[in-house]
Amino acid sequence: MPNELIPHRPDATALVATQEGIGMAGLAKRGDTWHLRMRVPRRYASVEKRKELHRSLKTGDKKEAQGRLAAVESQILAELDAKLVGMDTPGTRSHYEAIARLTTARGFGYRTAQELADGDLGDILRRVDALKASGDAPTEDAAQALLGGVERPRETLGEIAERMPEMFPAEVRDKNARQRSTWEKRWTRPAGKVTELLGRDPALEDISRSDAVSLRDALQDRILEGSMKGASAQKDLQNLNLLWKKYHQHLGVDLAEMPPSPFRGLGDGMSRLDEDSRKPEVPLDVIEQILLPDAMEHMNDEEADITRVLVETGARQSEITDLPPGSICIDHPIPHVWIRFERAPDGEEYARELKNKATKRQIPLVGVALAAMKRHPNGFPRYRGKGTYSAAANKSLRRYLPDGVTIGGLRHSFETRLKNAGVDSDDRAELMGHSVRRARGREWYGDSMPLEKRLEYHEKIAIKPRRALPAP
Q1: 472 in a structural domain
Q2: Which DSSP state fits 342?
Q3: Within a 10 A sphere around the Cβ of 111, how many other Cβ atoms?
Q4: Cα–Cα nearest to 76, from 117, 23, 120, 115
Q5: Which of the four pLDDT bands, split at 50, 70 and 90, describes residue 20?
Q6: 11: number of Cβ within 10 Å
Q7: Closest Cα to residue 293, out of 281, 280, 283, 307?
């Protein structure tokens, strides 16, 4: 019976193509059994001399073979990676990570020889059976992987925090420079606090529950003395717990076999130690005062107009400061700005992520906000992606803002204005970019609010300036 092949590439003209393959691999039938057939990528030439690899999929059913193809291809690539990294000095981090990924590709979680010896005998026997079934010799990488032949590297918490972008490149790919920096600090900042408060940068595996509790107690002391916010401490502990999980997931450790995080649950409730974790609102009479031209005389043009836009949009500061030109729709029948995911393949300036799905929305421009955006149809390049607006505005308006109130309170003031105007909680959530599901306490099904309805609400609460403002 002639071989039937399902290639993955259209240029494989010598083959009889019957269906597009998956990834780099295709299906080839030998006798009654389907096999994977794939070209070896050039990067593996130093460890694999063959140009093409074949592996039985152990079935004569085409659909079943197609279902197994991707998993077997991943297994082969993991084996090639292990061989490639195996040329490094044993004991290196990269060698260990390749072996751990190979274990995962074979359907097991990586465990060292000692961990296997201390565990269930049945687990060892299943691993040995898997090696026999695939025909792996005891000296091959697969045997090292499944039987725990490589010790775990002793990386410190600080080293792991620094390597997070390297381990999770997809999570920083579409971030601009400021967003990437914020994401990196999510890990490096709490790791730095561990070093500072414990007096050492511990190896991750050496961090005990008592170490983590000592850290929590030290953070709590800082909160009580007023040098740190409870919400910040809570977030740091939660991020340390998440770092622990993500690192082990990166290594391919099965969730059921993952050692418990020493930081689990320690951050819960720490935000309640703050007197008020919600930013105080800017009172309406203060808003009216700072909208006066004289109040903004110490501000540059962009700083002043960002402030005006925030007053009448209720947006987050970064949603306005980071606006790219393409999301500013001044000439639309209903002038508005788009808050949405931005990808910038040719540069980072306009790239930005969203906080969550609910954040994506159109915000109509009315009153002082419309006039301000007409003066800046291309946005605010002085502040775009820098995160420096808040400090500048708070300094400029300090004489007007009450004690303990910052420019960030404009967003809370906007929500209160909506509430006082009779706008219900669901609609307020949509206008503010909050989750309607969270506002309702249950799932929400329905279309998003049309721009016309949004405009109606914004016009309803628009502030009339006491004196004429600069013309657009």
Answers
A1: no
A2: B
A3: 23
A4: 23
A5: very low
A6: 7
A7: 307
Q: Which residues fall within 8 angstroms of residue 307, CB to CB, at 6 or more apart?
A: 290, 296, 299, 393, 397, 407, 410
Of 251, 273, 295, the last residue of a domain is 273
Q: Can you give the pLDDT at residue 334? A: 97
- Residues 180 and 165: beta-carbon distance below 8 Å: yes
256-307 pLDDT, tens digit per residue, is 778 899 999 999 888 887 755 456 899 999 999 999 988 898 899 999 999 9
Structural domain contains residue 175: yes
pLDDT tens-digit series, residues 38-51: 998 888 887 788 88
What are the phi and psi torsion angles at 320 (to 5°)?
A: -95, -45
State the number of CA atoms in the 13 A half-sphere of 220 facing the CB: 13
Q: Are 315 and 309 in contact (CB under 8 A)?
A: yes
* Cross-strand bridge partners of residue 26: 37
Q: Which residue in the block uniquely carries the two structure tokens 């004690």?
A: 403
Q: Give the pair of three-digit tokens for residue 161.
A: 């925090």
Query: Is residue 395 within 8 Å of 296, Cβ to Cβ?
Result: no
Count of structural domains, the chain:
3
Q: What is the DSSP string of 87-104?
A: TSPTT-HHHHHHHHHHHH
Please report where in the chains the tokens 């606090």 appear, as a residue: 193
Give the tokens for residue 103.
Answer: 């274990």
Our measurement of the distance from residue 423's CA atom to the centroid of its chain's CA atoms, rounded to an integer in Å, reads: 33
* Residue 198 CA: distances (Å) to CA of 245, 389, 409: 21, 35, 36
Amino acid at residue number 21? G
Domain hosting 191: range is 157-273
- Higher model confidence: residue 146 or residue 351? 146
Is residue 334 within 8 A of residue 431, CB to CB? The reply is: no
As a whole number of angstroms, the distance between CA 414 and CA 422 comes to 13
Give the C-alpha separation, 97 to 81, whole Å: 10
Could you tell me if 419 and 457 lie in one domain? yes
AA letter at 283:
P
Residue 435: phi and psi, rounded to 5, are -80, 120
Q: Which tens digits make up the pLDDT trace of 415-455?
A: 999 999 999 988 998 999 876 665 555 444 455 789 999 99
pLDDT tens profile 208-222: 998 898 888 888 877
pTM over 0.70: no
At 308, list the tokens.
């005006």
394 and 328 in a common domain: yes
* DSSP per position, 285-300: HHHHHHTSGGGGTTS-
Question: Among 141-145, 381-385, 456-460, which range has the highest average pLDDT?
Answer: 456-460
CB 412 within 8 A of CB 281: yes
